[in-house]
Design brief:
one-carbon metabolism, about 15% strand, single chain, three-stranded parallel beta sheet, binds 5,10-Methenyltetrahydrofolate, about 40% helix, six-stranded parallel beta sheet
Length: about 350
């Protein structure tokens, strides 16, 4: 498998990152797969440890929580630099309609994340029976508010609302979710640049970059074709010169197609759907799914699992994102990054 390893030698940033992660790995022209061991052996033992490698190996865990923290630190430094230089503090407005518990949790996490980097957050919570017109009024107010650089309408919206109308109303210069059709259109076109890229797919690609995993020329399979993850993820991978297939609910042979992938991005919302048998040895797996499943042993009564069967995948893949602690924290970090980018652009600050 060494010759088909999709890893490149890491940049210095990556090397730093890898050193701080749980598993020591040898990075270089050969494969990154290494021995089964959840706990890292001391580095001085690594050689003999690796030399005895014969059978079972386990994927490297891609630590989204750690990378997200690094990115938040970088953003915090930029936010204070901008504040000192031009006196502007980036502002993010979040509109939440209805009382879905998961949405409320996400919005709370976004607010906390804003605070942690010095971004101002404005939040409006509207009852489920709010009219579309009222939501449009809020958007229009934030569109015109110079202290707001990003506007996020938490999805899903209540069913009586036309999501398309609402998303189209966000000024493209403040569309930090990257959901405006003009931003998506530019993402799809060669030679064009969107103002913003959707946060979750952007976070997936950022993880690959920061772990030194090359995308160019690789076979990528995206499982799921949603507007917010699957579709933009496929577009982004294609922009990165991958050869991309999209597997969806009407695909007749999803397992066979997925098994050809060097890189898998799973975003379907089906717990443990992708089994070990779907995965080519040494593939890299980015698991976007965040699915609650019953777990009586947990204090919450449930636990979160991905779209990929982690226990099986970790034995086959070369690297994998965990759930939680993988893509989720990256989504929020990319939202903060988009908000900072927006504030810089609006104020012509480099
Ligand atoms: N307009 C809009 N933009 C969004 O970006 C958007 C949205 N609507 N609607 C809902 C989804 C979902 N989403 C998540 C963000 C972070 C975590 C996250 O940080 N999860 C953590 C913690 C999970 C936990 O323990 O609860 C983790 O995976 O480690 C999860 C999910 C953003 N979304």
């Amino acid at each position: 498998m060494a010759s088909s390893s999709i890893f490149n030698p890491p940049s210095s940033t990556t090397a730093l990152l890898l050193r701080r992660t749980r598993h020591p790995i040898h990075v270089g022209p050969t494969s990154l797969r290494f021995l089964t061991s959840q706990s890292a052996p001391p580095s001085s033992h690594l050689v003999s440890f690796a030399a005895s490698a014969t059978e079972a190996s386990v994927a490297k865990v891609i630590d989204g929580k750690l990378v997200a923290k690094q990115i938040r630190d970088e953003i915090a430094a930029e936010v204070s630099r901008m504040k000192e230089a031009v006196g502007v503090i980036p502002g993010l407005a979040v509109i939440l309609v209805g009382d879905r518990k998961d949405s409320a949790t996400y919005v709370r996490n976004k607010k906390k994340a804003c605070e942690s980097v010095g971004i101002n957050s404005l939040e409006v919570n509207l009852p489920a029976d709010t009219t579309e017109e009222q939501v449009l009024n809020y958007i229009s107010g934030y569109n015109d508010d110079p202290s707001v650089h990003g506007i996020l309408v938490q999805l899903p919206l209540p069913s009586h609302m036309n999501e398309q109308n609402v998303l189209n109303a966000v000024r493209i210069e403040k569309d930090v979710d990257g959901f405006h059709p003009l931003n998506i259109g530019r993402l799809a076109m060669r030679g064009r640049e969107p103002l913003f890229v959707p946060c979750t797919p952007k976070g997936c690609i950022e993880l690959l970059h920061r772990y030194g995993i090359s995308i160019k020329g690789k076979r990528a399979v995206v499982i799921g074709r949603s507007n917010i993850v699957g579709m933009p993820a496929a577009l982004l991978l294609q922009r990165e010169d991958a050869t991309v297939s999209v597997v969806h609910s009407r695909t007749s042979n999803p397992e066979e197609i997925t098994r050809q992938a060097d890189i898998i991005i799973a975003a379907v919302g089906q717990p443990n759907m992708v089994r070990g048998s779907w995965i080519k040895p040494d593939a890299v797996i980015i698991d976007v799914g965040i699915n609650p499943v019953d777990d009586p042993s947990s204090s919450r009564g449930y636990k979160l699992v991905g779209d990929v069967c982690y226990e099986e995948a970790i034995k086959v893949a070369s690297a994998i994102t965990p759930v939680p602690g993988g893509v989720g924290p990256m989504t929020i970090a990319m939202l903060l990054q988009n908000t900072l980018t927006s504030a810089k652009r609006i104020n012509s600050f480099q």
